[in-house]
Design brief:
The protein has 360 residues and is of the alpha/beta class. 43% of the residues lie in helices and 7% in strands. α3 crosses α5, α5 packs antiparallel against α11 and α12 runs antiparallel to α18. The protein is globular, with a radius of gyration of 21 Å. The chain starts with 37 loop residues before the first helix and ends with a helix. This is Alpha tocopherol transfer protein like. One of its GO terms (molecular function) is phosphatidylinositol bisphosphate binding. One of its GO terms (cellular component) is membrane.
């Protein structure tokens, strides 16, 4: 979920302007020659040049909240690029400045933690093929058309997009729960392309109206652990608040089980409003909310976001599910959680279904 942990006290050593690992199939095996060898440069692929699109206010915000210094930005990206090429030469990641910058911002420019997040990002993709194989907007069109997930058209006062999730729009007999997770993941991927979102983060609004025990049972231990792992440690986005409304009693049982596995900072960003729209409006102003949630911005319209995401098909054509991990590392080794934590999570989540019945 993005930004936990202190900023790096001391960044790496200064990088010379000529020290660049080039992108392409040979990213981690070729470096640019010295400045005195211009002819050799002709054979090296060009990486897209990063151009900052942040406003002056957001540059200031990034400096204060993310420890991002514009004068050091490219040096920091190069440091992360060098670490990838040294420690994970077979990761298969893009090494473009703009792409690596997402991970540095999500971890407040702590090189080591940004590297771990990057590795986790690809490890999660490789270890859950049901979600990440053939992951592109056209493949999850039925989920988008159902209205299960969308993005409100207006930003909140902090400049954050609001992702609206409505589980009641899902009919389990139509497709498995993994299709919903695919749709949410692609939505986050699209949002994180924006530098503004990288700095400001996002807000989630989840409406659990009409969620029954049978539907909730699809969110079992395996799925719960996977989703928590991705959102906390495997995706470069700052989730600043999760607002839950219309939650049935059953949800409180689910949250009580999941909460111990959430980092404290993230757990404190969950707000359970029940049916109290006034409580919701204290976190998300009515002016940006649709009428369905007591807002003044008209009926909830999912068509604009659906069209935007479906028009972004080219952004998601690369299939990361077949990435080759370093031969001496497994997905389990790369993830932040240790074996003991994984076992504890398994043992605790096994009790989910009995507790769900009790809460229901």
């Amino acid at each position: 979920m993005g930004e936990e942990g202190p900023a790096l006290a001391g960044r790496g050593p200064e990088m010379s302007d000529s020290c660049y690992i080039m992108s392409g199939d040979s990213d981690c095996t070729r470096t640019s020659p010295s400045a005195g060898s211009p002819s050799d440069n002709e054979f090296l692929p060009d990486r897209p040049k990063y151009v900052c699109s942040l406003s002056p206010d957001l540059i200031t915000k990034a400096r204060e909240e993310l420890q991002e210094k514009p004068e050091w930005r490219l040096r920091d990206v190069q440091a992360l690029r060098d670490m990838v090429c040294k420690d994970y030469p077979s990761l298969g990641t893009s090494l473009d400045d703009a792409f690596l910058l997402r991970f540095l911002r999500a971890r407040k420019f702590d090189y080591d933690r940004a590297l771990q997040l990057l590795v986790n990002y690809y490890t999660c993709r490789r270890s859950w093929p049901e979600v990440f194989n053939n992951l592109k907007p056209s493949a999850i069109k039925p989920v988008l058309e159902s209205g299960f997930v969308t993005v409100l058209p207006r930003l909140d006062p902090e400049g954050r997009h609001v992702v609206c999730i409505r589980p009641d729009r899902w009919t389990p007999s139509n497709y498995p729960i993994t299709e919903n997770i695919r749709a949410i993941y692609l939505t986050l991927e699209k949002l994180i392309q924006s530098e503004e979102t990288q700095v400001n983060g996002i807000v989630i609004l989840a409406d659990y109206k009409g969620v029954s025990l049978s539907k909730a049972s699809h969110f079992g231990p395996f799925v719960a652990k996977k989703v928590i792992g991705i959102l906390q440690d495997g995706f470069p986005i700052r989730i600043k608040a999760v607002n839950i409304i219309n939650e049935p009693r059953i949800f409180k049982g689910i949250f009580a089980i999941i909460k111990p596995f959430l980092k404290e900072k993230i757990a404190n960003r969950f707000f359970l409003h029940g049916c109290d729209l006034n409580s919701l409006h204290q976190n998300i102003p009515p002016v940006i909310l649709p009428e369905e949630y007591g807002g003044t911005s008209g009926k909830l319209d999912i068509s604009a976001w659906n069209e935007l995401l479906l028009a972004s098909e080219e952004d998601f054509l690369h299939d990361f599910s077949q990435l080759v991990l370093p031969c001496d590392s497994s997905p389990h080794d790369m993830l932040v959680s240790g074996d003991a934590d994984e076992k504890q999570c398994d043992d605790s989540l096994r009790g989910m279904k009995p507790q769900l019945y009790y809460c229901y």
